[in-house]
């Protein structure tokens, strides 16, 4: 950390900052510059809280240098983490396709969609049993009944299933039925839920918050790892910006940045980024090309009758088209010496 | 709701949309325009889910017309809601000052600060016992010990206390000690927590999410009211934008918009918006001037030693200055026929 | 356009809105709903200014329906526009690679880089002679001397050249030397410059503004087309958001949306979106995959000595790698029935 | 500037960075930390371009320390600049009210509005003769005819007038008629226009760009000052964010930050921030309270017939109300020892 003093700071101000730094157990090293003094904070383990020094007299700004994350950091573990979900691996260079409806609506609906997406190439089935909805008057999911339907999908099609958990109360139940547990965008900084996920015996997909920096996102993953669960998969799903032609703005650069900073695998969810069916396939192709380890896509056989998110769900034939495009791209990358998906320059 | 068709939509597309609308039990009314047809959705109670029709062939866009909120809406209750917290009223035209440290750190710290802010004019004491922290390695709050200290503050200074609740597990405990319960920014769409808050017997301060629209925020309040708790107070605390000179961007226009759309009181928290002490007083003045019903301000007698958010905490003498400015402004508004704080044109 | 009235609007308010609509020469059609009246504005050619009715008593909101753009709209011209620049076509399904340094610094620098990028597969050379710089103290470009160097590049390597024009004063000069003229991000709504570009006899690359909606961007293109120049190429280069791990946030969904709304070709500039070399290749791959008609990439043989934007310039060998990846992807798409780059579902 | 090395950087990387720094004529000082090395860049005058070092091997990030602006900086000139426009001073502690229509539409319109706003307390008249419009089909202003009407307003009511200049071609004409020249939001980084403004003999109001940081805004002002014109007034008018309940988001914290960083006066334009009449008065009050040196407000006597921006224009009686509120607030601040508008803590 570097504390940058104002041009008008006097020796007394500088001494006070040095004292405040040393009172915290760190070592202070003033660096005289041309016009102002900066004070380095040394010998800290991990990150120092910038706000400790920001308000002191004569301080202009405080610049963090060390990253605050440890367990999730590639500096801690240089090699990629590969995570096994049932018989499927995520993060080993293959592209993992996860597909299914936004919400589990009935056994017939889930099995019909599962059959379609399995045939097209999906390896993991997704479907919500507990739905976080903006309105208390909207369909909130089938709850345990939905989880049981997911279990049938796994049995029938030999596909692991992933579903969202919304709170600590229902965590045991979700953990019992699911092969992989999703923590949604709105709960990315629900720290109580993250702590519980740290005790889970199942892998966790952690979606990025609507307005989260990558640092905040990795720190949320750090909560889970720090709790004892090393099987965390990140999922970019668009962030909120001024842009109004898509529901959210897919931040494709998150993929190379996460892959540089962390050893954890990263998926892209093009459906929630787009919010409209006609953008999902182009965004999916971009996701594959940028180097994501997998896609999580919403598919519905009758989207116009879906109980949630119908507008962004692909028809099964569209998902099939997406799978063929993704396969072709993956083959291309595998056969091109010049490039590889997971080694992003 | 209005479904706007593409210029290229044919009669078959239009018929399919009409059928889809009527299959949901609404009435469809096509409106021929110069270049394209729009189809009105009538006889719906409350809002219709736009996504139901967005993906159908020939549909260009879907425009919501009715607001989705009911109980929180000023159309439902035209007069302002006044909420009583202990002996203090919020929302009745007086400016309610809430102040205290970010986190309760010790009995001595809390009592010292409480004495200062009480004397300056704060009517309610704030202080965190459970702290949502970005890093799992940061101070997480004193927990129940902190709540007990808050109870002492109440007793000693006859001030109601407000503190944050982070999960359903500790809700009973927080509800037992606090006079008013805060749901923080990161939990604004933690729907399980909102449902629990709907059963609470204490008023709830609901902070706006980092990237929430006012509609989403009011829908979160709707969850609490729909659960049975009508005592909800909104709190604007800055939103996340590209701006980097303050921690967040205080959205002052949220105040007149909330006051137009809803009957619930609205506070402003200038401390989290600013993230830096030197912006807190100017933002506080703006908050009073724009017509907020109260302020929630972080104050610490030794901010350079604070365990969290020290950089944005005012010194007691600064808070005193803020109170004198706020009082003067309030008197001004009361004595000027031309204006009033709570009736914003 | 639809004028949505408040639930509390009375008949007098409605009549006043109807009168205001008809005073503008449009036809008003009130549409009674369950709880409120909406008034359709019919028989307008093109878009109506929403602000005309937004402030009238009883009006809740005004919803535009017709798009405001005409000449750029795919509703006006359904087939893709292909634009010829020297011997190169943009927009005909091939991927056009444009590369070169941020700024032309010297003849030797430009020729060296041109030789590299030509060999790797670039078809058009880019390089700035007039540089828009945030600081008046930064290198502002070589001016006409730079333009003459660009002319030499064209001659030597048989590559058309594109360079930025910053004002009407130097437009003639830039138009004389360049094969294609760039209007930069900061000038996207410099309407005087757009009008001059409408008179130009060369194709124009119009970069998206830092915080522009697609509607605003297409309206800027409309200025150029309305002035008489139909050869407009759009270029997405990232927008400004809260995200801080890249200089800007590349909005890949702009490609399918522009291709749906307009017949004009669209490029992606990954260099300015990233602002850092290590993100440029992944973003380039995403750009190809999402269906952009071309890439505009900064390349420098000695980026550490570049006079501007060195940090985001690729080394020649990296650009070569990018070309091989892009070629492989293009071949993949051409050979896969299931997909095509320019027809995005 | 501080160059922060990766944990994995080796001595060779560090030496290369040191060499690159010294090749630019600066002095490099490596600072060994706990886990990584940072390298200070010393003895530079003014700011160093971060991108010079960002792409070098082993470099993690580059942290600017010195501010890039000089002439506009409060470090260069500690005391407030007061700017005289005709007989009116801006920046001397009084609140300067500037009002008038968005566009000059006719002599009658301008004189009618001027009479109203003059009587209410406006000291400077605003009105556009050249209008930057998103659509080429919208009213573009009366041009010179509009400027002549402004000259009549000045004569008749003894009010200086401010109007926007859109390009270098019409600059002489605008400078001839106007007392103060406005550079609009969309032209904030039209550097050719800024350079011309640097030669102007009239004060310049520089509006903040839609997505500009304060640093970029101050650098735009630096262009004007560097050109020789020291009379620059800044104007905050809202920035673009995800927020959709106002046209833009008024960034009130820009006022204390600009006042800390620069000696130049700063106005607020609440009309363009709001985009809706019913938010203009609350935002104006916030602007006064936060310490702006003046307001620039749109007023129209028949806004429903205005040729642009009718929805955000106040009625004359509303502007009168605004003036009485602003006066009362100003008196309050003058009489309260505890506070002052221009000295923000």
Describe this entry's structure for a reader.
4 copies of one chain form a homotetramer. The first copy, chain A, is of the alpha/beta class and 345 residues long. The first copy, chain A, folds into 2 domains: 2-63, Phospho-2-dehydro-3-deoxyheptonate aldolase, domain 1 (Alpha-Beta Plaits, 2-Layer Sandwich), CATH 3.30.70; 83-335, TIM Barrel (Alpha-Beta Barrel). Helix content of chain A is 34%, strand content 17%. Chain A has 11 helices and 14 strands. In chain A, the strands form 3 sheets. Chain A has an 8-stranded parallel beta barrel with strand order 7-8-9-10-11-12-13-14, surrounded by 6 helices. The first copy, chain A, has a 4-stranded antiparallel β-sheet with strand order 2-3-1-4. In chain A, strands 5-6 form a two-stranded antiparallel ribbon. In chain A, helix 3 (107-120) packs parallel to helix 11. The longest helix of chain A is centred in the last third of the chain and has 20 residues, at 316-335. The two termini of chain A are 29 Å apart. Chains in contact: A-B, A-C, A-D, B-C, B-D, C-D.
